[in-house]
Amino acid sequence: MPLADHLRELRNRLAKGVLAILVVTVVAAFFYKDIINFITKPVLDSIGCSQSFGQLAKSKDVHCAHITVSGLLAPFTLALKVALTAGVVLAAPVWLYQLWAFVAPGLHRHEKKYAYAFVGFGFPLFLGGGYLAFNVLPATAKVLIDLTPGSAENLLPLDDLLDLVTRMVVVFGLAFEMPLLLIMLNLTGVLSGQRMLGWWRGMIVGIAAFAAVATPSPDPGTMLALAAPIWALFFVAVAVSLINDRRRARREDQLADDEASELDLTPEEVGEVEAVAASSAPELPGTDRVNGYDDVT
User: Fold this and answer.
1) What is the residue extent of each domain of the chain?
2) Where is the composition biased (Low complexity) (predicted)?
3) What is the DSSP string of 76-128?
């Protein structure tokens, strides 16, 4: 298509994606309190609190954090942020399809196959990382709250808690995509499995450092909860890459045997070569040509 038609199609695809996000955001705005309760309930239960917008039950064995909202406009901005985040997440199938419908016509068949594989494996991996973060957060919150001195009381801003949960889910989900990215680089021939295997010491240290920075809790248990699955996924990616390298090498060897042919390097007599050259020489102009051109030319 011409450039103007491509830009027009891009505008229409973006408009449909944004419209889907707005519709879901408006619907989610009516249920934003339920969404907040769903997100914060595991964390609050782990630190001995049961928060349902005004109802607080405190356990005697552990410290309890009071959820606070600061400012007159804070409840409105909080509701808007929660509804918009829910709109982007829940409308993801629509705007992802619009993005795919714009890009897919320009891809070759093997590129589409790789894209389908990336989406098919990437989405469950992201969900697995987010689910792990959602289960690690309560233990992390308990460790952090228990560090509070006995004479102090915890005031936990609700917007900070929601930001922490969202960041942890996104970070854990993206971290689980790293092995898939390595496999895709191997399938495209950019990175070999043997080279990845040579990085295993650095990858173990690097993943541990990333987990220590990504998790808010200082305890090693939370760090290992993130690092251990990524270590396992990295070695799975290395194994898949090594198998793919062997398959690619075997296929190249078979193609070389089928297509290769030996060169005839036997020397020939000079006279034979001259005879062949003379026989393949172009014809000289005949009598019906003037200066090499006939009447039609």
Assistant:
1) 3-251
2) 274-283
3) HHHHHHHHHHHHHHHTHHHHHHHHHHHHGGGS-HHHHHHHHHHHHHHHHHHHH
